[in-house]
Write a structure and sequence with these properties.
Length: about 190
């Protein structure tokens, strides 16, 4: 069975479930921005969120639809991208349910929005060879691929789907592929 995440590319419900449970081997293939023939599909995992909106650098807003288990999605139109196959600079505006307060049994109104970066907007910094060598315990330059390094997102010289390069710190995680990283008590209460 497949389901449409918002309006855009189809993703199987099994893949969505693996992302939600933290067992997907490549969450970047589902979450974040994905250029396609109809535009750029953006997906985000925000469990417990009431609303999630893509906020472009120029102030335009694109509300995301709840697709499945805390995964939201939207298809950005062509005029929202810097060019064919390119991903615009965007942030996520997220509102969580506020207190009901009015004594009704209906759903609570969304609380205030918080605007933040979407970590899946950036390309992974560990390649397949790095993951293979780390898995075998034979990677001889871990300091180059793990931890936080000051760099530009365009350091590799490629234009890439991230849009214009920017200075900053790009951290690389050390999670074993296929195993999700989550709190020891198993609680996932938003990002």
């Amino acid at each position: 069975m497949t389901s449409r995440t918002g309006t855009g590319a189809w993703v199987s419900s099994g893949e969505l479930d693996r992302v939600i449970t933290g067992t997907h081997h490549d969450p970047h293939s589902v979450l974040g921005a994905h250029p396609g023939p109809d535009g750029v599909t953006v997906r985000a995992l925000r469990p417990l969120a009431a609303t999630v909106t893509v906020l472009l650098a120029d102030g335009r807003r694109y509300p995301m639809e709840h697709a499945h288990g805390g995964i939201f999605g939207v298809l950005l139109p062509d005029d929202a991208t810097p060019g064919p196959g390119l991903v615009p600079d965007y942030r996520l505006a997220v509102a969580y349910p506020g207190p009901a307060g009015d004594g009704s049994d209906g759903p609570a109104e969304p609380g205030p929005e918080t605007v933040g970066d979407d970590p899946y907007r950036h390309r992974p910094t560990l390649g397949e060879i790095d993951l293979h060598l780390i898995g075998e315990g034979r990677h001889e330059e871990l300091w180059r691929v793990l931890g936080a390094h000051v760099r530009e997102s365009g350091d590799d010289g490629a234009a890439g789907p991230d849009g214009p390069p920017g200075d900053g710190v790009l951290p690389a995680g050390g999670a074993v592929p296929g195993d999700g990283v989550r709190p020891a008590d198993g609680v996932r209460s938003g990002d």
